[in-house]
Amino acid sequence: MYRFAERVCLVTGATGIAAAAARALSAEGGRVFVVSRTADHAQALADEIGGAWATADLAREDAVQSAVRACVESYGRIDCAYNVAGISARRFGDGPLHEMTLAGWQAALANNATSMFLVSRAVVRQMLAQPARSDGQRGAILNMSSVLSRRPERQHFATHGYAATKGAIEAFTRATAAYYAPLGIRINAIAPGLVATPMSRRAQADADVMAVAAARQPLAGGALAADDLVGTALYLLSDDARMVTGQTIDVDAGWSLS
Q: Which of 5, 53, 214, 240 has the largest count of CB atoms under 10 Å?
């Protein structure tokens, strides 16, 4: 299937979940524009899939505007955006509330919630400036939440700033989806469980954490693979989900049930 033929897809992030999605979007005909803080990662992924790329600190307004402008200059429009890029903020001082530093809280907000807001705002502005398709649709945005926003795990995943940003992303997704639905823009979120990515290396190296993951994610028997999110992500970004907006879909291998 070529659900994304001639569609321009902006993806933030260039490893793990973002890389898996970018490859799949390209394989289905999409023209993919990769935005990452790390130039080497962005360029390598774009070269691999025949896409274009830009480097940007997505917590900076000017950097986001430049990256989105570069996407439009490369491909002429934006049809879908996948906000994957984010951090755990643990190394900045995120953790349990009584131990969390202000720097940890601010880093989580800036790199998870503010970055998603800035990219979404720039993309929506571009979509509104483009002619709508014959069916009235202008585009789709998919945001990255986490199972931890609604299903916390006390012992090993007590990063309360991170959880708060993911809850904010889900609320933002619903509010913006309601506003822009009449204008032909769909906005959804995906909430994965623990996924084996570069960001989760600490968890993957801890036998106790992986035992918890195996128990709470029985369908995976441990951490999910980045490719396990691809089917749901591409569904939500494609016309297959043209009547779906304002939703957060859990892809957690059973975490929310265990």
A: 53
